[in-house]
Write a structure and sequence with these properties.
Two copies of one chain form a homodimer. Helix content of chain A is about 35%, strand content about 25%. Chain A is built from eight helices and ten strands. In chain A, the strands form two sheets. In chain A, strands 1, 2, 3, 4, 5, 6 and 7 form a seven-stranded mixed β-sheet that branches. In chain A, helix 3 packs across helix 4. The interface between A and B is large, with 43 and 43 residues.
């Protein structure tokens, strides 16, 4: 009863206060120790998984709506969201039909109709160190879980495609922006940094070329310390030069002839 | 009289057949002989310039709507459009107020209200050889003109920001995808290719590094011909290896360690 009333309230809220035809979906990647995962939500009372998402209020900027949706659906904040693509096919039910999707949502028919009506959806992604964040399920969600990017189940709507596209964008980003600041400890070794890149790319990289390229960016500061507790030839520790890192983020490491 | 009737017809069409809250804007860059320009439309009966744009029909994919809008507003087709960003601020009247914008559109008040209502706008860009295409004005447009990217006037809405963002994306693209296939003649010299990159980047590049990097991509085929009619040491001619070029476009030249 309480659930039904709450659902009715949400439906009226949705129709009154939000832009029609536009929604937001969020692909939150989590990195930790050589693993790359993505945050999925299990729909209340079902076994069906999807990305967190939301809608845009009439008096709200798109980007603000993305952050509010993130907070509302997962409890997460202080994450840097980046827009990557807007999905606008008429049919966005890739894995399941409209009827199947409506059944899978397990909601009153007028609510699921509203949820599955044609939307153009703006995709945002982020990459976090997943040991540092604890997602919390919202009203519509039974469970938040980090899934390995290689083991994503069949998702509602076109959410598998969204993850594929976001991952492509994240990999692309490595060719024009530095990465690692919030993902590695303050001091790290070159192998730590290489592992991060290899995890994102899903492939191994040549050690010497990697080091040469990284040092060439001029964003790393080599410390007079080596990693302790290691083998005889312990690797040097590095940290990011925050100012140069920020500049490279902003200017982007463009085509330098 | 005819104009007013046509406007009324368009307004009804807009309200009936198109998604509300979402629109499309198109940044068409034109390259030719060391110049980079952008295609702007002068609004009918005014001196005000803006980007070509459009809206999405209920039964139409977003991408199809972008191509239909391009054709409808400029007469252009066979241009490869790429999505670059979706603009969703509540206030998208950067250069002029709502009232000024409405006045500048010089349309019946109900039509300009419809046109300036809050939209989330999906931006697409393209880069063409502008000597190869001839834009044609549509019903709303007095004139289509190529403007030098360094001399863009104050535009309607947030269209200056859109051009800035699209140009950043185009420059970024140089770091992960090859460019030039439809922009250079079938056979070209290394200086021709370098001029294209320099024009897009708006900066000069080191000749030797440029050549090294380009050859490293493995997408160029050096011909046994030199450019004729030149100086004593005429430069070699190259052409793109179509298959390898297509592969690099698709795979993207990612971080190669």
């Amino acid at each position: 009863m309480e659930y039904k009333k709450e659902i009715q309230r949400l439906l009226i809220d949705l129709k009154t206060n939000y832009l029609s035809s536009v929604s937001i979906d969020l692909v939150i990647f989590g990195f930790h120790d050589g693993q790359l995962k993505v945050l999925l939500l299990r729909w209340k009372g079902t076994d069906n998984w999807c990305l967190p998402g939301g809608r845009i209020r009439h008096e709200e900027n798109l980007e603000a709506a993305a952050y509010r949706s993130l907070q509302g659906r997962t409890g997460l904040s202080e994450i840097f969201l980046q827009q990557f693509h807007t999905f606008g096919d008429v049919i966005r039910y890739k894995n399941f039909s409209v009827e199947e999707t409506m059944a899978m949502l397990d909601l009153p028919i007028e609510v699921s109709k509203e949820i599955i009506s044609r939307d153009v959806s703006v995709g945002y992604y982020a990459l976090v160190e997943f040991a540092n964040v604890t997602p919390t399920p919202d009203f519509f969600t039974e469970e938040c879980r980090w899934w390995d990017v290689d083991q994503i189940p069949l998702l509602l709507f076109d959410h598998n495609d969204m993850i594929t596209f976001a991952l492509k964008t994240l990999r692309r980003q490595l060719s024009y922006q530095p990465i690692g600041y919030s993902l590695l400890p303050d001091k790290f070794t070159m192998p730590d940094l290489q592992q991060l890149y290899e995890t994102i790319l899903g492939q191994t990289l040549d050690r010497r070329n990697f080091q040469k390229r990284m040092l060439g960016y001029g964003i790393l500061e080599r410390l007079d310390e080596r990693k302790t507790g290691g083998a005889h030839k312990a690797p040097y520790l590095y940290r990011f030069d925050t100012e140069k890192y920020e500049k490279a983020l902003k200017d982007e490491i463009l085509f330098v002839g």
